[in-house]
Each structure stands twice: as structure tokens, then as C-alpha cells.
Amino acid sequence: MQVVGHKVPAKNALDKVTGGKGYAVNIVLPGMLHAKLLRSPYAHARVLAIDTSAAEKYPGVKAVLTAADVPQRLFHPVYFTPPETEEMVKDMQILSDRIRYAGQPVAAVAAVTAEIAEYATGLIEVDYEELPAVFTPEEATREGAPQLHETAVRNIAKRRAEEMGDLEAGFAEADYIFEGTYETQRVHTCYMEPRMVVVDSDYQGHLTVHSSNQQIFGLREKLAYALGIPQTRVTVVKPPYIGGGFGGKLDLGHIEPLAALLSMKCRKPVRIEQSRYENFITTARHPSKVTLKTGVKKDGTFTARYIRSVMDVGSHSTHGPMVMLALGAAAMCAYRCPNIKWDGDLVYTNNMMSGGYRGYGSPQAIFPIESQIDEICDELGLDPIEFRRRNAHQEGDANPFNPEIPLTTYRYEECLQQGAERIGWPRRAAAGADAGVKKRGIGLATQPFWVSGCMGVPDFYEHSGAIVKFNPDGTAHLSTATIDLGAGQNTTFCQIAAEELGLEKDQVFMSPYADTDILPFDAPTHASRGTYCSGTAVRAAATAAKQRLLQVASGMLGVSAEELEVSAGIITVKGSPGTAVPVSEVTRTAELPFIVQTADGPVPTSRPEDKGTIIGVASLAPPSNPSPASVEFVEVEVDTETGIVEILRVVFAHDIGKVINPIAAEGQVEGGFQQGMGYALMENLVFDQEVGTCLTSDFLDYKMPTSMEMPSDIESIFIESNEPSGPFGAKSLAEPCLTVVAPAIANAVFNATGARVRDLPITPEKILKALGKL
Amino acid sequence: MQVVGHKVPAKNALDKVTGGKGYAVNIVLPGMLHAKLLRSPYAHARVLAIDTSAAEKYPGVKAVLTAADVPQRLFHPVYFTPPETEEMVKDMQILSDRIRYAGQPVAAVAAVTAEIAEYATGLIEVDYEELPAVFTPEEATREGAPQLHETAVRNIAKRRAEEMGDLEAGFAEADYIFEGTYETQRVHTCYMEPRMVVVDSDYQGHLTVHSSNQQIFGLREKLAYALGIPQTRVTVVKPPYIGGGFGGKLDLGHIEPLAALLSMKCRKPVRIEQSRYENFITTARHPSKVTLKTGVKKDGTFTARYIRSVMDVGSHSTHGPMVMLALGAAAMCAYRCPNIKWDGDLVYTNNMMSGGYRGYGSPQAIFPIESQIDEICDELGLDPIEFRRRNAHQEGDANPFNPEIPLTTYRYEECLQQGAERIGWPRRAAAGADAGVKKRGIGLATQPFWVSGCMGVPDFYEHSGAIVKFNPDGTAHLSTATIDLGAGQNTTFCQIAAEELGLEKDQVFMSPYADTDILPFDAPTHASRGTYCSGTAVRAAATAAKQRLLQVASGMLGVSAEELEVSAGIITVKGSPGTAVPVSEVTRTAELPFIVQTADGPVPTSRPEDKGTIIGVASLAPPSNPSPASVEFVEVEVDTETGIVEILRVVFAHDIGKVINPIAAEGQVEGGFQQGMGYALMENLVFDQEVGTCLTSDFLDYKMPTSMEMPSDIESIFIESNEPSGPFGAKSLAEPCLTVVAPAIANAVFNATGARVRDLPITPEKILKALGKL
Questions:
Q1: Suppose B327 and one of A118, A208, B191, B361 were both cysteines; which one would form an S-S bond, judging by CB atoms 3.0 to 4.6 Å apart?
Q2: B578-599 exposure pattern, b = at least 16 Cβ within 10 A, e = fewer
Q3: What is d(CA A760, CA A741) in angstroms, rounded to the nearest whole number?
Q4: Does B380 touch chain A (CB under 8 A)?
Q5: With contacts defined as CB-CB under 8 Å, which chain A residues touch B614?
Q6: pLDDT tier at B460 (50, 70, 90 boundaries)?
Q7: pLDDT in tens, A310-358
Q8: Are A26 and B30 within 8 A, CB to CB?
């Protein structure tokens, strides 16, 4: 292949790293107002009265909204499944008189500057009736606890149970039974570009929306639903790129409908940008507590597993039901096990809402599962690689989540083997065997099976579309609604189109701006779907454009289109490479008038039916979203006096089918490690336990790994299976390279020191405690 | 038909009349700089030296450009024919050291505000060598006159001669020969929204262009050519609407490449807006002098015509060669005449450049032709209606401009007859017969044959494209690169799409923003092409979308797509209206996931191959652009003491095929009358005859007809022929309703008073002179 598989750097990297104009946060519209939200200091309260008169009178203030001014319909903010689907819970309102978390918006003020709007929120007088609050699932589900939502008895937002085989018989069959409880914390996605929106209403109430959201069609539907207006009264503009999302920009927030209502009221564009603090308190990965009971035979074969998960969804359910389902699915499907049961509870508390975050339930499942495997192997003296190989699915098995689809490509074992080779697995010693104060150890974790969307979960929106258009100079433009979150999707898609069109790698451009009015539908950029799902649509649109190209060329060369092929920008007759015409000549001719005037007089240009822009369009549902395999080895050094963990070396091995752009794939893996390392060792949103207020206010007190903490040595191995249903053999990557990091580090820390930490983050304090030093 | 032919008001009228955000002139980009141009006070000069140091040092100034800083390649600014075509003359430069008209840009300054930029232009010191200048074609073509361009001997920019038949024999055959010379003045298009541009260069030098131009693809090509960069480094954004164009925004000006170069230099968006004065001095309708010698038989049949035209193109040729050709074509083709010759000269002078203006050469041809017919009829006692009928082309005749195409629909005679009836032609008295000081009269003028683009002139760009996309709620969006200049194209296209799709009139929306990266090619909105050419593409795209719609519906209804039809939003089985499904159900289902969860469990939604957005695309060259017929009757009252002309009543009769939107068609006719009336009676750009400086500075000293001068009584009759090649039988209108106004008024003034004025505008002074009162 000429373009696919080659390293292609992103075209607009310089613009992006310099805070470029393409970010939605840089949008400025003429006459634009700025709005700020007044947020409740109480975690649970009723608003008895609001006096906005002083704010309204303040110079520069243009409008104030309270619950009385906004539609009171309940909505759920996540565009994952159609509105008909029962799975999601409609429990949100644009503004409500009932406060359920500290920071919930109570009012919104639009003014000529953000500073005036901010100041005027302080002039609003609110009379609250404080209500008793609950901050843990244990408290919330206790008899007599205050109930947050009418429909949720004992604050169970959603309960789900799944069983396969016979659990009791499975445990009876086991030689050993292991049980442990694993906890994870609340972390934030930490996209660099804040959540923001500019909504511009025209005089007819048509809304044009600029946003850093991860979706344009989802945002259109959700915003229209919350406002109670037709979708076609909303146009959402796709920015060229956004500054990260990681699942944290996959819902309708308060800011979008509030900006819309303020814009409709003021007949001016209204901008709302969330502060870093507001970003922190409006979405997070669900904290979880998973109890895992596992029966194994002596040789390490699973006989039974029981998973009980409790997740704190916070004040509103948002993504919760789907994240919980994903946790259950990841836990149940990762390995073969004939008897398995999962009980999941999603619990409302007066904490901030949880949301979507890369991994989407899997990190909370894989940390327990992979930690426990290590515990079992250590206890039974089994090799962790052999143990996993024994229990893993095999290529050709049925998809454990949807038996109608086989695992066509699944190179998990080769990932294990090559990863082990590169990390130097044989030098791994027994746990805590390293002498001295600074102890080294090697850990392993894997996400062998990944539940993706599409036919894996066929009730998700997964359709994609693309438009491929030739320019007269023989280059082409590609347009798609899929948003590049920073993972290089735009470059990858251009490579797929270029390969299919027979162009060079720099001859296909991504159309930077487009909107929901012109683009074919696309699901949000979520669920590791870009390369496979959108890539399939991009290739199909390119195929359509190529067909038209060859049809026009056939008129010029006097042969049938079927006899033609195109490569490196040249169309040739198959078998007669001498008979050729450049793509640029065909595209130019197609757009010429019927005749051109030349020195020799008028000359006809081509057949009348071959006139026009050469363009292809595709909109389709991809056939599947096949599972990649993700294996990670990590070597650490733990200072047993300070408890500080240093990452020395990381080896990832992935089967993601054909790698379209190695630079982008490696970038995904390295970024995944960084987020996983933060989750494993340091990140945590901290709350006042009495009143529920978030104490983490900005990046100065939210510790993430930076280049200072990142290991310099991350090796990515790609086992290139050739997925037959994927574009040029590709599968998607994205999430599984994150989910394995925390257990791999936990296992490496254990291997180094013998200290097992079962709750994240694995802080120095916890290590020292586990070592009996604190 | 359900939608076509019905009156549909424009959706965004309120936004437009309130100076809405959709105008490109309202674009604001973050960090945007403002640029102003320093213009030469001399009409002919050489720049010997420029000192920009003071301007560069002035606080807030970010960049200054002179000729030394810009590419010196010659270009022609008009996108009408491909670059290969010899017809156009490359004689312009972005900035040049050779000044050829008073007001030619010499330097450009970008600064943080427009005021600073303007002030800083005054700090630039220019050392000019003044050269002798010529301000009339007579002076310019005189032996020894200063030569403006190296390639143009005696300042003839272009000379063209065409002959049919045997002119001498024709005159020999004539019973009478009439000869007269007719002159027209320099008028401005007077679009309300000024020419402006914002160019935004990214770090890679990719340019995004916002402009009020009448074209996006033409602007892309022309700008790239002038800068010497690939077209694909330029993205031109289509605004939802522009504030008029009338042909005055059909070229590349100085401002677009200057804004681009300044933006590349400063790495910030740069905005240039022309002041009203700058608009006046950068484009105008070519002043002309036409001598018309006509041989007729006693019964009024033409035997021979000789046309000699001289047009003052000003300093640079721009549209000139094509406008001259259009003048010649309009003069030669209007009526049947076996022996005809045209000599045309286009002459450079040191006046401002002429440009495109609605009618494009036709007003300069039709004023002499229709005036002279009236003179002949008056002299020979013939009826002007009968005279025209005798000499007109007939339906079925060959197209006089391209004999391969017949005049399929051509209801000129019915237009004459019905117009005459409505104006009350029989009450028309002899010239000057009305007694009293205020004399009334009735005049007639026609543009029987209109030379349009497409196959009529097959070396014009006339391709059009469209994308039609269904929304899940069963409505549809339409996208096209054709720009709505204010004539209601957006509404007309939505009607065509709705009719074809079987939707209601309010169920198709025009996608407001899109750009050259995503849209299929479209020729500029020029040459009366919108309804016919773009409308053909819109209908084809709708047909493609409908086919896909019926295919998906066929899966739902279990019948073949061929058995289905759609109307008023309902798809039915032909002959079995009981078996039906709403369009909205089909479009919704197509975008649903494979299965949906319901109370009864998971339910499959449709065949996998029917998933995806229902979308259709078309890009094509329309087969022709058939001629409308335009007939105008006007009744005036002339005050013979003051010379003031009042328009009492106007009757227009047109064959424009099927009328898609009667509101828009009537609006075209009324707007055409207004511009024609200004041309006929009052408009004129005034220049200092010594130094060539334009003295008309704004609308206070450029007199146009306003609602105060407009007649309240304008009647539009449409003879609805059914053009087989047009969308739903439609032809275009646009220009011919303007070209007939000046001669109709001149003829009415003559009929009222007996005073014949052969040079426009027909001012009170000229009337009084003709009456011998001055």
C-alpha cells in the first residue's frame, strides 16, 4: 500500500500546539454576549425563592435566567442510544429548583463581558432550604436515607444482573476460590480545551451552535430535545479540531441549553466557557467498588466468577447506566469462563455527576480482574502469561458479547509473546525479591477482549458518513462529521481516502469546517470507533468518487471504466501502462466548459455526461467494531522509604489490525499510558466530606503526569492482523491501551515490593502502609 | 404541483432587513486585523519611491505592503472562462508601480483597528512621476496618445468584428436607412453590502476566505492564481446571503489578495472593507457609444444592420472583452436580420475600471436598438408592436447564438399581446399629442432574445452542483455553492427540492454555511443562470435522494422501490394508497441502530443495507440556458416646464417558463425596473475631467430611485411556457427585465413630448434641451 501504513504527521500540528484558531474556544461572533452560571453552595437543597432584580439592573447585564424561565422537561444528556431506549434515565433539567450537588447551576446571567456576568451572578439572592445529603453509596442506599429522585427507591439509579452458566456449580468445581474488593477513585478527563459553547439564534429562533463537544449530531438532538424544539432548528458546526475530550464532552451540559435560551432572549450570540473548576465538577470517571470472587482449577483455568459492582453516579445518572453495563460486560467477557454472574448497582449520591471517560467502565473492571489474576498466580505459583493464555478467547471464537459475530482477527497470544520478549520477562523475579531500598519489578496486564459498539452492541448509534470530492487539480477533499479529538483521526481518514483514490498522501485534505446541515450523520467520536467505523464510511465515499473518476477517464481514454485502475495519481489501462491519463487531467476536464477556445479554435472538452465535480458520498452502518487485543508490560522502581514509584520502561503490544498511521497509533498508546498512569498513581478529585464541595480547583492541585513523570521508554508493538471487515484491514484502538495501565502498574509495584494495593490511586502512603511502614 | 408555482416568502427576511449576521460584512474573527489601502491621487503615474517607515513604526500597525512585497504576476480577475481562454486579458497586478487610474492602490496597511490603518496610510510617502492621461476613448485612440498597456496599441484593449450575410446587399435592398448614435453613462451597481473580505491564514499558509463575492469557486481560483499558490490552499466560505451584487462582485479585486498577503505575513485574520467611495471607483457599467445603421423595407422588415460600438473599459480590461461580446451578441441576435455586421472596440483610458453589471453589455445594446425601432416606427407610421412581431424570432427557430439548439419555448408574441392589453395600448396617442404642461405618453421596449451562458455560449463555466440530505424527522437540507444575491435563489431552490422530494414547502432548508472544500463546483451567480442551471442540479440531487428514500422505504413496505411514489411527506404504493409510510418514519428508521430496545425486548429496525443518512448529490453541466422573453410597457408623465419625468404605470410581460416562486419573480422584475429607471433617468458617476478623480463620494451625491420615485403600479405578467429542459419547466429571468427599462422610458418620454434623448441619463436638462427650452 502506498499511503496506508506509512507514518504521516498531522498537517496542522503547529496551529494546534499554539492554541490555534480552529479550536471552538476561539470562536468570536459579532455582538457576542458572555454568560456565567450561579451555582449552588449546597449539595442538597430546595430553592425557595430567587431575587434577580439587582443582577438584572446591573449595567451590562442583558438577561438572567432561573428555573422559572426555562423548560422544565426532564431529559437525559447522552446521545448513545435512540430516545426510545429504556436504558438511559431522564433525570436532568436545564435549571431546577431542586439542588442535588454542590455546584449545580441555579441561574445564568448574560452580559456584555464575562467579568460583568460573573459579578452579576453574585448579585442574585437565593433563599435555599438545605436538605440532608448523602455522599457515599453506602449512606445513600441505607434505609431512611434522603431520596434524591422520585423514581429511584433507596437511590438505586439502575440495577442490573447478568448470568451465564451455573455459578454455584462453577464454584463447586473450583480447586481454589479467591475474593477481593477493589476500589477506584473519581478522576477527571482533563481535556485541555474547556467545555464551551457559543449559540447564535437568528430572528426566527434558528440556533447555530459552536462547541468543543465530541459530537455534532448528538449535540443537535440532545439540545433540541431539552429545549423542546425540532432538531432542524439547530445547526451544530464541526470545528477543525478540539482540545481533547476523552469522553468528557459526550453529553449535553447545562451550558448549551442555557446559552441557547439566552441567545433566543437577547437575539445575540451567547458564549459560555466553563472554568477549570466547572470542568472538574461537571464530569468525572465513576468511582467504583468491585468485589470479585473467582474459582480456578489448579492449572489456572477459570471455573466461576462472581462480580459485584457498585458505582457512585452522583447527582444525576447521565452516562451511568451505560458505563455500568460496560463495566459488567468488560468483566464478564474479558476471558473465557463458563459460569459467571454480575450484579451491578448504580447509586445516586449528592456528589457531582459522573460521566463518560475513556475506557467507559472498563478501567473499573480491568483493574480488579488483572490485579486478581496476578494475586492468583502469585499464590498458586503460576506464570501470569501462561495463565492468561489458558483463559483467553481464541481467534474464530464467537464474539462473547454477540455470538452472531466471530472474532475474525484476534492475535492476543502473539501480543503476549512479543511483549514478554521485549520487556525481558524471564528476568522477572519473585515478588519483593529485589534487594535494597529501591526495588524493581515487572508487571503485566491485558484487556484481551474489548466490547466495542456497532454490531457488538447493536443498539448503539454507530453510523458514519463521508463526502469525498475531487478538486480540479487532482487533489481531493474529505468531509466527515467525525470529530478529531486530538488522536489524529483527520490524518488517518485522509490516508484511507488517498489509498482508495490512488492519490499520494499529501493529496487528500480534511475539510475543516462543516455542519449538521450538510454532513451525513455520524455517531459521536466515542467507543473506540473512529478508524474502524468512520474509516469504513470514508473508504466507501472514496470508492464512489473513484468510480465516477474512472467513468470520466473512460470517456477520455476510450475504454470502459472497468479496464482502468488508478495509482499514485495516474489512471492506467490495466495491462497497458502506456495508456494513461493523470487524475488531475481528468478532474480538470470534468469541470471545464463544454468547449474551450484555443489557438486552433474551439475544442470540445469531454462527453456532456462527464461534466461536473467528481464527488462521492457514503453513509452507512459499519458491519461490526471488532475487538483489538491490548497487552502491557511495565517495569517500575519503588522507593521503599518514600513509597514513590518511578516508571522505568513500558512495552505495549496491540493487535489493532492493519495500522493506518503508525505515528497516530503510537500517540494513542503513549497518551493512554499517561492517563492510565495518572489514574494508577496520583489523580484524584478531592471533596469536603461534610458538605460535598469539590476542593480541587485547578491543575495546581490536581496532579497529573507531565513530561517530568512520564517514562522516556515506551515501546509500542503492533501485531498487524488483517481484519477483513475493516478499512484496509484496520481495527480501532483508543481505549484499551488506557484500561490496562493501572493494573499493570499495581502488579509491577507488587512484583517489586510484595505490597498489594487494591484501591486507586496507588499513592506513596498506601504503598508504605502496605509495607507496614506507616 | 404542490410547491413549485406557489408563493413562498423568504425564510430569513427579518434577519436580512435588519442587517443580519449572515452577511459576510458582519464576520468577526479572533485577533482580526483591519487593513486600508493607500490609493493614488494621479490617474496616470509612475511610482518612483515609497517610504513606509513612518507607517510601519506607528503604534498598532502590523504590516505594510507595497508593490515590492507582492507577486508581480499579471492576472485577469474574472472567472468566466477557463484560464486557457484567449478572450480575457491579463493586465492586472495586486500592486504595481505603474498607476493607471486615480484611486489605484499603491500600498496596504494592516493594523489593530481600521482607524489606525487608515491614519497610517497617510504616513506613507510616495514619490510619483505624473504621466499624461487620457479620459475618453477618442483621446485614447488618437495617434500619439499615451499608451496604457504595452500590449494594447493605441489603447485598443480588444477589437472584435462579426458579420452575417452581406451587409452592402442588405442596405441596397432597404427602402429606408436610419442611423443614430446612442450613448450610455458610467453607473455603479450599488449593492448595499460593501465589497469586503476577511482572509485568515493558518501557520501552514492555508487561507480561509470570507467574502461578499458572488462566487466561491471563482474567487478560489482567481485568488490562488494571483498569489501563485495551489487552489487547494484556499477555502472560500459561502455566506448565507449577501447584500446584493448585480455583477459588481464578480471579480477578484485588490482587497482579496492584499488581505491574504497581510494575513500570511501577520498570521492573523485580516479584514478589508471597501468604503462606499472605494466601491464606486472599483467597478461600474461600461460607458458606451453605439452607432446603429439600419435598413428596413416599407413594411418594417429589417434588411441590414450595422452596429459600431466603442466601450470605455478604463484602466484595466477585467470584464471588458466579455461585456463587449455580450453587447455585440445582444445587438446582433435580438431580432431576425439576414445581413448584419458588428464592429466593437474596447478602449483603455485612465478612468476607473469598468466591470460586470446586470445586463452585461445588453443595456448598452438594447437602448440603441429599441430606441431606434421607435424612431423608425414614428417616421414610417408603423405600429411598434407589429414592427417587433414581424422581425422577432419564432418558437422553434434555431438559437441565433448557437444553431445547434432550437428555441424550444419562446412566447414573445404573447408577451407583446398581453402586455399591450394591460397597459391599454390603443389609447396611446401620437408623439407629443397630449395637451398641457404635463404630458403623458406610453413607451414599449423588449429584449426578445437573451444570450445566456451554458450551451448558448458553451465556453462559459456553467456547471452546478447540490447536496440534498434528509434529516431524521423527514425534513431535508439542501446545500449548494450558488450564492443568493438577494433574488430569492435559496427559496426557489428549496421549492424545487421539496417538489421533487414530495415534501411540503416548509420542509426543505437551505444549509446556510458551506465552503469550497465540501460543496460541488458551481459557476458564479451570474448571467441569469440560477433558477435554470443551479435549479437543474438541485433537482438532480433531490432525485438521487428520493431514489435512496424509496429504496429504504421498499425494505420497510416489502415492495420494490419502483412501485413507490411520494407526495406531501407520505410514501405510498402506486395504486394502493392504503399501503403507506410517512417519509419521517423512513428517514428516522434509516438512522436508527440495527436494533432498538423496547418494552417487548430488542427489535430489529431495518435491513443493514438501508442504514445511514439518506443523501443525494449531483454535479452536472446543464444542457442549455434557454432565452426568456422580456417585454415592458411604461406610462410616463413629463413636466415640460421642469423636464421632470414621473413614472405612472409599468407593465412587464415575461416568458420565463414555469414560474417557481411568483414572489421572487415579481421581486426580480420590480428590482430590475428600479435599476433600469436609475440608469434611464438619474444615475451617473461624475469625474473631474482634468485629473480623472471621481467626484461622486457616497449615496448623498449618487442619485438612485428610492421608494419616493418608484411607481406604485408595476404589473408583472408571466406567460408560463413549459421549458422541457428546465427544472419543472422553468427558465431563468434576472437580467432582461432590467435591460428594457431605459429604452421603454426613452420611448415613453418621446411619445409624451416628442423629445428624443439619445444619451443616458435622460435628465430634465436634456429633455428641456430637446424641447428647445434650454
A1: B361
A2: eeebebbebbbbbbbbbbbbee
A3: 12
A4: no
A5: 619
A6: confident
A7: 999 999 999 999 999 999 999 999 999 999 999 999 999 999 999 999 9
A8: yes
B473: contact with A, CB 8 A cutoff: yes
Verify whether the Cβ–Cβ distance A615 to B469 is below 8 Å: no
**Residues on chain A touching B514 (C-beta within 8 angstroms):** 514-515, 517-518
Point out the residue among B86, B514, B521 whose CB comes nearest to the CB of A613. B521
Residues A679-688 have a mean pLDDT of: 98
Distance, in Å, from the CA atom of A651 to the CA atom of A630, rounded to the nearest integer, reads 11
Residues in chain A: 774
Query: Hey, is the C-beta of B720 within 8 angstroms of any chain A C-beta?
Result: no
Q: Which residues contact A545 (CB under 8 A, 6 or more apart)?
A: A468, A469, A470, A476, A501, A614, A615, A616
Count of beta carbons in the 10 Å neighbourhood of residue A759: 15
Cell 478531592 belongs to which residue?
A686
Check CB contact under 8 Å for A515 and B518: no
Full-model pTM: 0.96
- Residue-wise pLDDT for B495-550, tens only, equals 999 999 999 999 999 999 899 999 999 999 998 999 999 999 999 999 999 999 99
**What distance lies between CA A450 and its chain's CA centroid?**
14
What ipTM does this complex have? 0.94
Mean pLDDT of B325-331: 94
Q: Which residues contact A300 (CB under 8 A, 6 or more apart)?
A: A376, A377, A380, A382, A386, A387, A390, A391
CB B541 within 8 A of CB B618: yes
The span from the CA of A112 to the CA of B33, in Å, is: 22
Interface of A with B in 77-106 (CB under 8 A): 81-82, 84-87
CA gap B30, B28 in Å, rounded:
7
Element (H, E) at B649: strand B645-655
**Mean of the per-residue pLDDT values for chain B?**
95
Residues in A closer than 8 angstroms to B456, CB to CB, are none
What's the pLDDT score for residue A455? 63
Average pLDDT, chain A: 95
Comparing alpha-carbon positions, the chain A residue that sits nearest to B477 is A517
d(C-alpha A704, C-alpha A710), whole Å: 10
Contact status of B611 with chain A (Cβ, < 8 Å): yes
pLDDT-derived band at B83 (thresholds 50, 70, 90) equals low
pLDDT at B603 over 90: no
Strand ranges for B67-112 from DSSP E? 98-99, 105-111
Q: Supply the Cα-derived Rg of chain B in whole angstroms.
A: 28
* Cβ–Cβ gap B518/A518 under 8 Å: yes
Would you state the cell numbers that stand for residue B126, as one nine-digit string? 510616495
Q: Which residues of B touch A460 (CB under 8 A)?
A: 593
Q: How far, in Å, CA of A352 to CA of B211, rounded?
A: 46
Residue A525 forms contact with B (CB below 8 Å): no
Q: Which of A684, A686, A681, A668 is nearest to A742 (CA)?
A: A681
With an 8 Å Cβ cutoff, is A476 touching chain B?
A: no
Contact yes or no for B20 and A595 at CB 8 A: no
Interface of A with B in 300-319 (CB under 8 A): none
Q: For position B602, what pLDDT does the model report?
A: 81
Q: Which residues of A166-193 are buried (b: 16+ CB within 10 A; e: fewer)?
A: ebeebbebbeeebebebebbbbbbbbeb
Closest chain A residue to B464 measured between Cα atoms? Answer: A612
Q: Do B204 and A520 touch (CB under 8 A)?
A: no
Closest chain A residue to B480, measured at CA:
A518
* pLDDT in the model for residue B527: 87
CA dist., res. A416 & res. A225, Å (int): 47
The beta strand positions in A417-494, using DSSP E, are: 438-447, 464-470, 476-479
Q: From the CA of A68, how many Å to the nearest CA of chain B? A: 29
